[in-house]
Design brief:
The complex is a heterodimer of chains A (99) and B (832). With 99 residues, chain A is an all-alpha fold. Chain A is built from three helices and no strands. Chain A is 78% helix and 0% strand. The radius of gyration of chain A is 16 Å and the shape is elongated. The chains are: A mainly alpha (99), B mainly alpha (832).
């Protein structure tokens, strides 16, 4: 595997996390700035579902070859990202959208 | 057991030859030295000097605050003191210190002769030293910045802070970041391409992982603060209203950009320190680190998660609560990887037989202080608590527990631990215990009461306070503690003066019985031969390694090309690929560094002509420096032993230079990303100053400009093919230069009615144009430089690294400019 592929393999969980975090924060900020609080829930939920699905795929692909260091890293980075994605999206159920 | 690549007796005189080649220059030319073991020590020394200077400023502040209503220092100077203390500790001590330790330790820890770009390290060091010293001296003339280390506008705009003070911060610090980025490029390419054969990713020492994560974080975090400082300086100098609410700007944009850098910055400082701890703990316990893979995961996880925490510095700014909650959640999640590391260290201590020598004491002190700081960190991550504690001394206590605990204590541990590697003698164990005892006690006496003062309502950044508010005793205790720390540091200096005698060959050696490669016998040429690694602690697991390396029985025991060399290995599996000929010392990097500093410093005090003269000299020196790079290819492969023959020249994606340019493009991309986000942010806040779809000028300009840009890229591609087919480089290059200049001119003409000072829209579009102009200028200069080398016979179908670099950046510039056109011309049409 080339270095770029290895680097992408290890960091794919982190990249999904970054995209998710940027999406939920950016969309929420925009929805609130334009006074459309009704859009906040889908703006958080859709990226979260997509991110969770992608992370699960990365996680299982890594677990299958976990003896190899790079795959182990890929799987655990994805597992940690999964935890962070779910944990960070949870406040949408507890905190008013644009309060 | 591996087979030795060069068994048997080596010819006499090889070591003398290595010594001759790698010895630093003598006499006045000594300051041009570039060996990592010298530049690294100077760099650490300079960072430590700034630690002492910033510490003295802290003592002045603590003296002022010792008693209520003190008149020792007035508010004007006090504002400068706390701004300088924070700024210097973060920018002139913490980041450079960990970067300097990397430059000092990495080559030996990786088994390389030196880092791939030693002149770049020297440039980074000198730019930082000159810039930093002049910056510090601003306090003697009352020009020091006084807006706090995070410089929030509108306080720091020209209206509320006229004079040069804030400019010193913006230009002085902004340019020192360039030196940090130069160091980061050096570290990334060094770690990925100069590891000993056999040192796969899974066998990299934890410290190397930590410094790699550190350097990658710099690549993505520092551009944000560079953009922020550029915006604020543009607003101060030319009234481009990025932060002026009345004209569609927003002061919070500063905070977003600053803290997008500022929070990762905390981990940028902490992770290498944690990496050092992960080296010291196994040695002190004489057993491998427990949970190596988990610790590497923790470093990586902290690295990326730290980019999702910046708004927790902005909980009190009125951002919607749900948005704050995302950051509260992320702030709590980041405790997990830190926790993993803490448990790994405790478990390693528990598994081994611990020698409680000074480095171990500092690690234990670090654990105590850092865990406490981490716990108060979780407290301030809780939004309602933060609203109470915000801007109070509780935060001052928290940040010092995290930063001093997380970085200063490990660094002192590292000083004790690694000093035998650069000095004839180790530091005194007896005095070391006193140093630790005084610093640990002093620290807790100084900073623990600040939690209580903060909870009792004492705000930050006040130069005095009234008696009877319940803060008097707490402040007096804090001041006593601060001076106890100072006594500890003074003792350390005395010990250093007594024991530190710089030495590479003839250093004190592996006094701790450590397991990693930096403890191999070494000289200015690093280790005599380049070992083959089969484990993470090769000195523990590979018997006779030190003896065989020193006897020259491993790879490259000599200097076959007659100059400085190091083996370039593949980035994942560390297999030898080619032999890099490393440049020798010279004046041009120093002159470039001094005059780069001069350019920025004269610009700070608005001496435009001297500034531009310095800038021209710096560019000249950079070009002179570059002229000697890319040496003539050697026809023969070089035998490094064991039947391995390596080419001594490389172009294309395997060359070290290609890698550096790719990292540079990541830096540039990250910078541009911040500008694009700035554009979208300002539109989100103030759509009323944006033009409607009808007001945007006709589509013809951007479409033609984009076409010209893409055509210039195609012309560069044509020039590349011509060069490889041994035809003339000029037609393609000339076409490319004309096309890119025409594209930029057209883009400028299309915006001839733009007034940057009128609104935040005008300002951000003018910035996008300026950045395009800057990049176009850079690639034009690089292309002309390649053409000059071609004309001089220094560039051909094989020897073409200079042209490849220009070509890569050219394509990048075209891509970035097309994105800029799409943003500026497309976005208002899309939303208008």
């Amino acid at each position: 595997m080339s270095f770029a592929a290895t680097a992408l393999h290890i960091s794919s969980g982190a990249i999904i996390w970054v995209a998710h975090f940027a999406a939920i924060y950016g969309f929420t900020a925009l929805a609130c700035a334009r006074n459309m609080p009704q859009l906040v829930l889908p703006a958080v939920a859709i990226p979260t579902f997509v991110a969770v699905a992608l992370l699960v795929v990365v996680l299982f692909r890594g677990i299958a070859r976990r003896k190899e260091f790079e795959s182990w890293m890929s799987a655990t980075v994805a597992a940690f990202s999964l935890l962070a994605v779910v944990w960070e999206a949870m406040p949408v159920f507890m905190v008013p959208a644009c309060g | 057991m591996t087979t030795l690549p060069n068994p048997g007796q080596r010819p006499a005189g090889e070591v003398d030859e290595l010594r001759r080649i790698w010895d630093p220059p003598r006499g006045l030319r000594f300051i041009t030295v570039i060996n990592n073991n010298y530049v690294g020590v100077f760099y650490v020394g300079a960072a430590f000097l700034f630690f002492l200077l910033a510490g003295i400023l802290a003592l002045l502040m603590r003296t002022q605050l010792a008693v209520p209503e003190n008149d020792f220092i007035g508010p004007e100077l006090y504002n400068q003191l706390f701004t300088m203390h924070g700024t210097m500790m973060m920018f002139l001590f913490a980041v450079p210190a960990v970067e300097a330790m990397g430059i000092l330790l990495l080559p030996n820890m990786l088994g390389a002769r030196d880092l791939p770009f030693p002149r770049l390290s020297a440039y980074a060091f000198w730019a930082y030293l000159v810039g930093g010293l002049v910056f510090f001296c601003s306090i003697f003339v009352g020009w020091a910045p006084k807006g706090g280390w995070f410089m929030n506008p509108p306080l720091t705009t020209e209206t509320y802070s006229p004079g040069f003070n804030e400019d010193f911060w913006l230009l002085g610090i902004g340019f020192i970041e360039i030196s940090a980025i130069a160091g980061a490029i050096e570290i990334i390419v060094g770690v990925l391409r100069t590891r000993s054969p056999g040192m796969t990713l899974a066998r990299m020492p934890v410290y190397v992982w930590s410094i790699l994560v550190f350097a990658i974080m710099i690549v993505f975090a520092f551009p944000a603060v560079i953009v922020a400082t550029a915006l604020l300086e543009l607003e101060r100098a030319f009234h481009w209203p990025f932060f002026t609410a009345a004209k569609g700007g927003d002061p919070l944009l500063w905070q977003h950009l600053f803290w997008f850098f500022g929070h990762p910055e905390v981990y940028i400082i902490f992770l290498p320190a944690a990496g050092m701890v992960s080296m010291i703990v196994p040695t002190m316990a004489q057993t491998p680190l427990v949970g190596y893979r988990l610790v590497v995961l923790a470093l990586a996880a902290t690295g990326f998660l730290s980019f999702g925490l910046w708004v927790h510095h902005m909980f009190a700014t009125g951002i919607p609560q749900l948005s704050l909650s995302f950051f509260q959640a992320a702030s709590m999640a980041v405790a997990i990887p830190s926790g993993i590391q803490v448990f790994a260290w405790i478990a390693t201590f528990a598994k081994g037989k611990v020698r409680l020598e000074t480095p171990a004491l500092f690690v234990l002190g670090f654990l105590f202080i850092f865990v406490l700081g981490g716990l108060t960190g979780v407290m301030v991550a809780v939004i309602p608590f933060d609203w109470q504690a915000h801007d109070s001394y509780f935060v001052v206590a928290h940040l010092h527990y995290v930063l001093v605990g997380g970085m200063v204590f490990p660094l002192f541990g590292a000083f004790y631990y690694w000093l035998p590697y650069v000095s004839k003698h180790r530091l005194s164990e007896q005095l070391g215990r006193w140093v630790f005892g005084l610093m640990f006690t002093g620290f807790n006496v100084a900073f623990f009461p600040m939690h209580l003062a903060g909870l009792a309502g004492m705000p930050r950044r006040v130069y005095t306070y009234s008696a009877g508010l319940g803060w008097d005793d707490l402040n007096l205790i804090s001041t006593i503690g601060a001076f106890v720390i100072a006594v500890g540091v003074l003792l350390f200096l005395i010990d250093l003066a007594r024991k530190f005698r710089m030495a590479s060959e003839g250093n004190a050696g592996n006094v701790w019985n450590a397991g990693t490669l930096e403890w191999l016998p070494n000289g200015n040429y690093s280790s005599r031969s380049t070992p083959i690694i089969t484990s993470r602690e090769p000195l523990w697991d590979q018997p006779n390694l030190a003896r065989d390396v020193e006897a020259g029985q491993y790879y490259l025991p000599n200097a076959p090309t007659g100059g400085r060399e190091t083996i370039i290995t593949s980035p994942v599996t560390a297999e030898p690929q080619w032999l890099l000929r490393i440049p020798h010392p010279g004046w041009s990097p120093l002159i470039a560094a001094w005059f780069t500093a001069g350019f920025f410093l004269f610009l700070t005090v608005k001496l435009v002509i001297p500034s531009f003269v310095c800038g021209a000299v710096a560019v000249g020196a950079l070009l002179r420096w570059g002229w000697n790079l890319d040496p003539k290819p050697l026809p023969e492969s070089i035998d490094i032993g064991g039947g391995v023959k390596l080419p001594a020249y490389m172009n294309g994606p395997l060359s070290q230079s290609w890698w550096a340019v790719v990292v540079l493009m990541l830096v540039a991309g990250s910078t541009y990303g911040c500008i694009v986000v700035g554009y979208l942010y300002l539109w989100t806040v103030s759509p009323e100053v944006w033009p409607t779809a009808e007001q945007v000028r006709e589509l013809m300009y951007p479409v033609i400009a984009a076409g010209l840009l893409l055509a210039s890229s195609a012309a560069i591609g044509f020039a590349k093919r011509s060069l490889r087919r041994r035809r003339s480089l000029y037609p393609g290059l000339l076409a490319a230069l004309i096309l890119i200049a025409a594209a930029f001119a057209l883009d400028l003409y299309g915006h001839r009615d733009l007034s940057p000072a009128a609104s935040s829209y005008g300002a951000i579009v003018a910035l996008v144009l300026s950045v395009e102009g800057f990049f176009v200028t850079v690639v034009v200069v690089l292309a002309l430089f390649a053409a000059a080398r071609y004309a001089a016979g220094l560039l051909d179908h094989e020897r073409r690294v200079t042209f490849d670099n220009a070509r890569l950046l050219w394509h990048y510039t075209v891509g970035q400019s097309v994105v800029g056109l799409a943003l500026v011309h497309g976005f208002p049409r899309l939303v208008g």
